[in-house]
């Protein structure tokens, strides 16, 4: 074997998936040496875990210095360098400085990169890590109007958090936030966009470190930001929300002012905007409207970071470009596992589970991958983790607690489902997706306290047909009823 540094386990990536995987390898196999190789100067750690249901935890995500992981788990060595190549045949990892690492078991947790509407346009910005969030903040400080493309997590949080500038929100769908919620919930949230922001006095729970130049020299491959990413930004002191939504559109063209003039097309003016205003960039939407703005935020999903692993390796990829993994988290390469945003599960999933690239799944996958790696070396049998029985996600949108469970938007049901709804404006929105009298999924907005009961009802598939619409009758305490 080449003159490589020898480890039992190697983990590539210092995000939630990689750090969770390394921590669990330490618990399972404390004598074995593990190397974590990460391109980011800071690593992520999950803290203050508070279980709220069997599959759902609330937790904080901290950015930490790698030394802290080494102190807590003495078998772990953290190497702060990007991986440049993997020789899966000889089980060797190469990094930028020419170092080589051999492993018996490797887990790739290299996350994703923003999938942008244009990769080389200077006015198009994506948000992924601390560095890109800082760039966003700098540009926002000088902006009067931005255009946000995308209808998922980042766009939904951004239109609520960013005030004091005009926002044009261009969404593909008939309703907003379609990745996470249904049209009814979007209506529930709509009034919030017309309200001014209330300044929060809550202190930040997440510890922040400054990443110095040497740590960012490797470019745009830091760990993904998390739940409170916007609270670290210094946003405007003007707390007015000014959001214009364009539905069912995509971006058709991006112009400079000169190109706009030459095209002979004219652009839309917002109320009180001078007719002769000139913008750094113009965006033509598929409904033919053209808006001028300072810059464009492309919040249009992620692409898995796989390119450095492909050279010389016969990697099988999923349809979304992620590393295909089987039910033991193994990729198509021998002794190579993957977890988190970089992977695409290819096993037949449980009826109520599917992949979404989220913290919770990165954490579950990281810990399960560690179990799979260890039990393969120890020749022990392993069963699929319970976390993959039910899709569940807890977050906050527009200031409300949001819990989504199972087939919350009727996914996989091919339209053969009914909806039960309880809806009190400004207070709560409860939707159950029912098929054959059994609960398949739910969206819970507000302090409903129903997550545990509904999780049980989805998992145990109890026949609820006799209760009909009473299932959501506010006069019946269903929590007590089904406990
Ligand atoms: C702005 C934003 C807000 C979000 N908010 C939420 C939220 O509220 N709730 C939620 O559930 N999810 C949220 N997410 C998604 C969540 O952050 C990700 O799903 C999760 O962090 C993925 O973790 P990961 O470990 O798989 O990848 P990452 O966190 O992306 O980590 C990948 C790691 O791999 C390293 N790496 C990459 N390439 C190489 C290489 N060649 N060599 C060495 N190291 C490499 C990187 O440096 C990094 O350390 C958010 C994401 C963003 C961008
Ligand atoms: N609170 C939370 O849970 C948060 C989670 N996140 C996570 O962070 C990651 C990145 O967030 P984000 O970028 O918002 O990704 P998401 O996957 O959440 O959303 C991407 C959105 O962009 C749309 N889209 C994709 N391509 C285009 C296009 N060319 N033109 C217009 N729209 C397009 C998608 O539509 P379609 O689906 O139809 O392709 C989808 O609505 C995701 O994994 C997300 O889950 C981020 C912030 C908050």
UniProtKB/TrEMBL annotation:
Required cofactor(s): FAD
Coiled-coil ranges from the UniProt annotation: none
Molecular function GO terms recorded: oxidoreductase activity
Signal peptide extent: none
Residue ranges constituting the FAD/NAD(P)-binding domain according to the UniProt record: 8-160, 283-366
Origin: domain of life: Eukaryota
Domain NADH-rubredoxin oxidoreductase C-terminal: 396-461
Keywords carried by this UniProt record: FAD, Flavoprotein, Oxidoreductase
A Pfam family it matches: Pyr_redox_2
Family: Belongs to the class-I pyridine nucleotide-disulfide oxidoreductase family. PYROXD1 subfamily.
Protein name (record): Pyridine nucleotide-disulfide oxidoreductase domain-containing protein 1
Source organism per UniProt: Meganyctiphanes norvegica (Northern krill)
Source lineage: Eukaryota, Metazoa, Ecdysozoa, Arthropoda, Crustacea
């Amino acid at each position: 074997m080449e003159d490589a540094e020898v480890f039992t386990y190697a983990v590539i990536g210092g995000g939630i998936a990689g750090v969770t995987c390394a921590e669990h390898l330490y618990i399972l196999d404390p004598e074995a040496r593990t190397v974590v190789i990460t391109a980011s100067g800071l690593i992520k750690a999950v803290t203050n875990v508070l279980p709220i249901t069997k599959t759902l935890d609330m937790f904080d995500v901290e950015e930490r210095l790698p030394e802290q992981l080494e102190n807590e788990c003495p078998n772990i060595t953290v190497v702060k360098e990007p991986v440049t190549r993997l020789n899966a045949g000889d089980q060797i990892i190469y990094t930028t400085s020419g170092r080589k690492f051999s492993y018996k078991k490797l887990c790739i947790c290299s996350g994703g990169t923003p999938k942008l509407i244009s990769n080389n346009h200077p006015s198009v910005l994506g948000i992924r890590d601390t560095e890109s969030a800082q760039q966003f903040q700098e540009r926002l400080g000088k902006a009067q109007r931005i255009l946000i493309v995308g209808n998922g997590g980042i766009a939904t949080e951004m239109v609520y958090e960013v005030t004091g500038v005009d926002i044009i929100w261009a969404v593909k769908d008939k309703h907003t936030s379609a990745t996470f919620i249904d049209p009814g919930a979007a209506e529930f949230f709509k009034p919030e966009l017309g309200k001014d922001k209330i300044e929060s006095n809550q202190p930040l729970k997440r510890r922040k470190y400054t990443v110095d130049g040497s740590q960012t020299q490797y470019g745009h491959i830091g760990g993904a930001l998390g739940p409170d990413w916007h609270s670290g930004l210094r946003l405007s002191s003007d707390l007015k929300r000014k959001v214009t939504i364009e539905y069912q559109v995509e971006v058709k063209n991006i112009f400079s002012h000169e190109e706009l003039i030459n095209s002979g097309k004219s652009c839309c003016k917002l109320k009180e905007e001078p007719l002769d205003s000139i913008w750094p960039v113009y965006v033509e939407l598929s409904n033919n409207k053209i808006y001028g703005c300072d810059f464009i935020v492309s919040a249009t999903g992620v692409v898995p970071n796989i390119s450095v692993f492909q050279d010389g390796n016969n990697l099988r990829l999923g349809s979304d470009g992620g590393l295909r993994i089987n039910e033991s988290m193994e990729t198509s390469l021998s002794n190579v596992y993957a977890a988190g945003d970089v992977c695409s599960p290819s096993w037949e999933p449980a009826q109520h589970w599917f992949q979404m690239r989220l913290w919770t799944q990165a954490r579950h996958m990281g810990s399960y991958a560690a179990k799979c790696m260890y039990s393969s070396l120890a020749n022990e049998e392993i069963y699929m983790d319970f976390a993959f029985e039910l899709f569940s996600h807890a977050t906050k949108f527009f200031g409300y607690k949001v819990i989504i469970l199972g087939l919350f938007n009727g996914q996989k049901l091919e339209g053969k489902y009914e909806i039960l709804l309880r809806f009190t404006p400004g207070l709560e929105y409860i939707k159950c997706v029912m098929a054959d009298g059994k609960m398949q999924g739910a969206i819970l907005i507000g302090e409903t306290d129903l997550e545990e009961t509904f999780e049980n009802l989805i998992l145990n598939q109890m026949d609820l047909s006799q209760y009909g619409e009473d299932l959501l009758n506010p006069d019946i305490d269903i929590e007590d009823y089904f406990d």
